[in-house]
Automatic annotation (TrEMBL), chain A:
<feature type="active site" description="Nucleophile">
    <location>
        <position position="40"/>
    </location>
</feature>
<dbReference type="InterPro" id="IPR016050">
    <property type="entry name" value="Proteasome_bsu_CS"/>
</dbReference>
<keyword id="KW-0539">Nucleus</keyword>
<protein>
    <recommendedName>
        <fullName>Proteasome subunit beta</fullName>
    </recommendedName>
</protein>
<dbReference type="InterPro" id="IPR001353">
    <property type="entry name" value="Proteasome_sua/b"/>
</dbReference>
<keyword id="KW-0378">Hydrolase</keyword>
<comment type="function">
    <text>Component of the proteasome, a multicatalytic proteinase complex which is characterized by its ability to cleave peptides with Arg, Phe, Tyr, Leu, and Glu adjacent to the leaving group at neutral or slightly basic pH. The proteasome has an ATP-dependent proteolytic activity.</text>
</comment>
<dbReference type="GO" id="GO:0005737">
    <property type="term" value="C:cytoplasm"/>
</dbReference>
<dbReference type="GO" id="GO:0005634">
    <property type="term" value="C:nucleus"/>
</dbReference>
Automatic annotation (TrEMBL), chain B:
<dbReference type="Pfam" id="PF00227">
    <property type="entry name" value="Proteasome"/>
</dbReference>
<dbReference type="InterPro" id="IPR023333">
    <property type="entry name" value="Proteasome_suB-type"/>
</dbReference>
<dbReference type="InterPro" id="IPR016050">
    <property type="entry name" value="Proteasome_bsu_CS"/>
</dbReference>
<keyword id="KW-0963">Cytoplasm</keyword>
<dbReference type="GO" id="GO:0005737">
    <property type="term" value="C:cytoplasm"/>
</dbReference>
<dbReference type="GO" id="GO:0005634">
    <property type="term" value="C:nucleus"/>
</dbReference>
<dbReference type="InterPro" id="IPR050115">
    <property type="entry name" value="Proteasome_alpha"/>
</dbReference>
<keyword id="KW-0647">Proteasome</keyword>
<comment type="function">
    <text>Non-catalytic component of the proteasome.</text>
</comment>
């Protein structure tokens, strides 16, 4: 701490100062804290009028499912969304950070954000951290230059593709894409193929599971279909209800029905946070 | 039990040297094999590539072979170990024929024999570095099983080795059903092989499809799959994103 008082901290890039001390601690027997990985299937594809992104909803912590219904499709800009695989904290933090940078940029330029802007901001951030920020992203959006789909790897390299998959379930999903993708798909065909690819990841990969989230982005509008498909419903709730043992004398019966939660979305973006 | 028991004697000769040579890593390898059951029997598909590390050295390796009257084997992994397994199987079938008792080994028996070999070699830390697919029909009963180098074995309606597990099995789980016709089976296998060709770096566009039914074995001559590379996005991928790739 006293070092910082004397000199300016280095600007940007990864500070390797604590690595030697961490290695020494591990050698002495310290167990490094495990992190929440998303072990995921995320996909994107370009169709006739725009981009469709898809993701599963399982977050794993080693062999345990930590969150059965997490959100992996992150908001970047009104016309750009980003799916994230890898360490959940990294994908959240990096997409939030670039999202706020894009907002400031929009105020500055007075124009709609472009997908390449998000791409460049993300890749330069990830590259400067040399792969230690473990975020593998599928970035998609529609701007004035048209629909775009990119994949970004943790080390900072990017690809521009008509269809892409990332995460542990990427091979299962890519098998579906390679056999079914064609150019000029309509919206419904595209959503169907994306759902099939995510389901392929959910049922064939152990790191992916639960539900399918979809986001359809076209020129000027977007549809966030949260839990578009629920192929893993709970089916084991006993219908018989609870019965007391025969010796119990029933003194009074009072039935309280459970009220249903109703979501009120007042226009605007519900997930714009 | 029968003369088959004496076969391991030859393999123990190989493993008996004190400073035994063991398979530590594979050298020339074959990539995935995919197999499915269909209405009349079993269909297997494998390409004809033998890779030497990251070089595609041999492009005419036959990885699908008939075994006796009722079975078909497909091997991925180390090619020399696959050839050794074929020698063992040839000896097995020979002794079976010499009994001349009207009985012949069916696919279930051959699969069990292979499992014992693979597992025993693994226990001696000298594995045969292969993942095998064994399919066949005997007395109307279809059988499709797989064994790998550590002795894990199971049977199923569709199996795959290597990369096929990740790329082909999701497709098969979705689209396989009972009583596929021969044409449907071939289309399904070709779909899997095409995806493998696109996404497996050690795949070669020269494949064989083998069929086994009650009547016998047919292994097709080698042919190539049609691939599609003309997506407009591939022609000018960074149209909107100059500078990236």
């Amino acid at each position: 701490m006293s070092r910082e008082a004397m000199e300016m901290p280095p600007k940007g890039g990864f500070s390797f100062d604590l690595c030697k001390r961490n290695d020494m601690l591990v050698k002495k027997g310290l167990k490094e804290p495990s992190f929440l990985k998303t072990g995921t299937t995320i996909v994107g594809l370009i169709f006739k009028d725009g981009v469709i992104l898809g993701a599963d909803t399982r977050a794993t912590e080693g062999p345990i499912v930590a969150d059965k219904n997490c959100e992996k499709i992150h908001y970047m800009a009104p016309n750009i969304y980003c799916c994230g695989a890898g360490t959940a904290a990294d994908t959240e933090a990096v997409t939030d950070m670039v999202s706020s940078q894009l907002k400031l940029h929009r105020y500055h330029t007075g124009r709609e954000s472009r997908v390449v802007t998000a791409l460049s901001l993300l890749k330069s951030h990830l590259f400067s951290y040399q792969g230690h920020v473990s975020a593998a992203l599928v970035l998609g959006g529609v701007d004035v230059t048209g629909p775009h789909l990119h994949t970004i790897y943790p080390h900072g390299s990017t690809d521009t593709l008509p269809f892409a998959t990332m995460g542990s379930g990427s091979l299962a999903a890519m098998a579906v894409f390679e056999s079914k993708y064609r150019e000029g798909l309509t919206r419904d065909e595209g959503v169907k193929i994306v759902s099939e690819a995510i389901c392929s990841g959910i049922f064939n990969d152990l790191g992916s599971g639960s539900n399918v989230d979809i986001c359809v982005i076209t020129q000027g509008e977007k549809e966030y279909l949260r839990n578009h498909m629920l192929p893993n419903p709970r089916t084991y709730i006993s219908e018989k209800g609870y019965t007391f043992s025969k010796k119990t004398e029933v003194l009074r019966t009072k039935i309280t029905p459970l009220t249903e939660m109703v979501e009120v979305i007042e226009g605007g973006d519900a997930m714009e946070e | 039990m029968n003369s088959v028991d004496s076969k391991p004697a030859t393999s123990s000769l190989i493993g008996s040297e004190a400073d035994s040579q063991r398979t530590l890593y594979p050298y020339v390898t074959g990539t995935s094999v995919v197999g499915i059951k269909y209405k009349d029997g079993i269909l297997l598909a494998a390409d004809m590539g033998g890779s030497y590390g990251s070089t595609l050295r041999y492009k005419s390796v036959e990885r699908l072979k008939p075994v006796g009257k009722h079975s078909l084997i497909g091997g991925s992994g180390e090619i020399s170990d696959f050839q050794e397994i074929m020698r063992y199987l040839d000896d097995l079938i020979l002794s079976d024929n010499m009994w001349d008792d009207g009985n012949s080994l069916g696919p279930k028996e051959v699969h069990n024999y292979l499992t014992r070999i693979m597992y025993n070699r693994r226990n001696k830390f000298n594995p045969l570095w292969n993942s095998l697919v064994l399919g066949g029909v005997k007395n109307g009963q279809k059988y499709l099983g797989t064994v790998n180098m550590i002795g894990v074995h199971y049977e199923d309606n569709h199996v795959a080795t290597g990369f096929g597990n990740h790329l082909a099995r999701p497709l098969l789980r979705d689209e396989w059903h009972e009583n596929l016709t021969f044409e449907e089976g071939v289309i399904l296998l070709e779909k899997c092989m095409r995806v493998l060709l696109y996404r497996d770096r050690s795949a070669v566009n020269k494949l064989q499809i083998a069929k086994i039914t009650e009547e016998g074995v047919t292994i097709s001559p080698p042919y190539a799959l049609k691939t599609f590379w003309n997506f407009s996005a591939f022609e000018n991928p960074t149209l909107g994103a100059e500078g990236s790739w």
